[in-house]
Amino acid sequence: MTTTLQAAVREDLRNSRLAKIRNQGNIPAIVYGKTYESKAVSVQEIAFIKTLRDQGKTGVFKLELDGEKTDVMIYDMQVDRIKNRVLHVDFYAVDMKVEMDADVPVHVIGESIGVKEGGVLQQAVHELSVRALPKNLPNSIDVEVSELDINDSIQVKDLKSGAKFEFNNEPEEVVVSILAPSEEPEESEEETEEKEPELVGSEDKKETEDK
Question: Cα-flanking dihedrals φ and ψ of residue 129, to 5°?
Answer without folding.
Answer: -85, 130
